[in-house]
Amino acid sequence: MNISKILILPILASFLFACGAEEKQTETKRIDLSKPKTGGVLVFGRGGDSVGLDPSKETDGESMKVCDNIYENLVTYVKEGTEIIPSLATSWQISEDGLEYVFTLRQGVKFHDGTDFNAEAVLFNFNRMYDKNHPFYNVGGTNKYWDNMGMSKIIKEISKVDEFTVKFTLNFPEAPFLANLGMNFASISSPTAIQKFGDDYNKNPVGTGPFKFVEWVKDARIVIDANENHWNGRPYLDRVIFRTIPENNVRFLELKKGTIAIMDLPNPDDIPLMEKDSKIKVQKAPGLNVGYFALNCEKKPFDDVRVRRAMNYAINKKNIVEYLYGGLGVVAKNPLPPTMWGYNDLVVDYEYNPEKAKELLAEAGVKDLTISLYAMPVPRPYMPEGVKVAQAIQSDLQKVGINSEIVQREWGTYLDETEHGKHDACLLGWSGDNGDPDNFLYILLDKTATTPPAQNVAFYKSDELHEVLVKAKRETDPKVRAELYKEACLIVKKDAPWVPIAHSLVVVPMQNFVQGFTIHPLNKVYLRDVWLAK
Is 38 left (phi over 0), alpha (psi -120 to 50) or beta? Predict the structure, then answer.
């Protein structure tokens, strides 16, 4: 066996330089910023509540930003990139044939409930997703990520070597496997807590992370406190409060008043005002994301590729990005963001051409069509104003003779209904989880990801695409993989299951006294190193 340290292909070196914000020190000029200060409460204002806090069950970003601080994985990502580094595993070995991964576990680690982290805990967590005979298999919900990534087909066996060593044996080589283990679904929960709370574990999370769960008042706040006994030392902050404030402008007002320290997903028009405020600093970074308009290929008339292409011609994406993203996005033509390896810049996008759209609709025999258009009720990194985007699309579709009824739901219900295909078309998006194109293309567009609750909400099934994506997963040469993903982008463009809308810049405004916060390319919200200079 060879001891392996895997480097996930870099997004772009420029990402790290773009993360910085001009530091205004009006409030902190008397503080020695070279010496982090322990203590204080950080209030994080966000646009929506979490769906659940069992990371093996959830896929939404609002759940994950809390879970990022409660849980840990065998491996994790560096603070400012996608390189894989040790976490609950101190080292790992990968066999020459890529079929065996042996992890040496960190000793002396305790879960927040005081129980021990060891090989048995690792097996319990993975087997509750892998083994259908496990007593806690699908307890608390289905394993969406695990299932849509085909993990049960990839893994042949998970075994305990000794108290602090575990081995994963695969059925075939899987290039992104190690990176996948850094994703939220592979976080390690306390087996004792899962057994205690059962279906309610997602409301009573227990991990090994730098913060421990205190309370959750639905649609109001989630509170986490410093883990004084963390194996890597306690975090600087005493407490973090994630406040749910759905309206973007209200979050901005709260930031100006000083009642929150950080906010996410600001209105694009408000950002210049924030940058002029001496008490506020604004971090910006390219987003590893895509916002898209998915067409349900299992429903007429979107089972006809001519209609799907017509939708692409009918929607004025340039206008949407210009007026609703406020200069903080670029028009998308691929499912992959342009900062990701495997992106195909040679793809020629559908132009905005309503007359061409009408021709294709007539050719397909479509007339007097009314569709349900699901619009996201909360701002997301890839789409700051989902309802306004839906209204713009509605207007464009009317011009080619298609009527649409905008449907809004509470965030958790929205995800559930789109994952079960109740929509004709819906707005959604994705922020990368592990720096690998597989994390976009296989999860969001492969035919295996269409079983409800589906991540492929276009319910698009292509044997041609599946063959290419499987080849890319098995291939170990990064250059060959990149070419396969470029081929996949061409297939998706041809079949048009989506109207790709935009890739957005990630913007995080915060009080000037907040130190140590970094925008992560994978949209992680790591608060361990954050401190308050006041």
Answer: beta
**Mind listing the pLDDT tens digit for each residue in 485-523?**
999 999 999 999 999 999 999 999 999 999 999 999 999
User: Which among 374, 338, 336, 358 has a CA at the least distance from the CA of 485?
Assistant: 336
Angstrom distance (rounded) from CA 392 to CA 320: 7
CATH match of 2-21+33-261+513-532 with 3.40.50.150: no
**CA-based end-to-end distance of the chain:** 51
Distance, C-alpha 25 to centroid of its chain: 32
What CA–CA distance (Å, rounded) separates 261 from 116?
A: 35
* Domain covering 289-506 assigned CATH 3.10.105.10 in the classification: yes
Q: What residue has token string 């195909």?
A: 344
- As given in the structure block, the two tokens for residue 453 are 């609750």
Backbone φ, ψ for residue 132 (5° rounding): -65, -15
Among 405, 400, 370, 402, residue whose Cα is nearest residue 390: 405
> What is the rounded CA–CA span in Å between residue 126 and residue 402?
47
Closest CA to 467 of 435, 493, 495, 491: 491
Rounded Cα distance between 472 and 478, Å, is 9
Helix, strand, or coil (residue 280) = strand
Q: What is the pLDDT of residue 30?
A: 59
pTM above 0.85, yes or no: yes
Judged by DSSP in three states, 333 sits in: coil
Q: How many angstroms separate the CA atoms of 344 and 489, rounded? A: 6
Work out the average pLDDT over 245-250: 95
Per-domain residue ranges of the chain: 2-21+33-261+513-532, 289-506
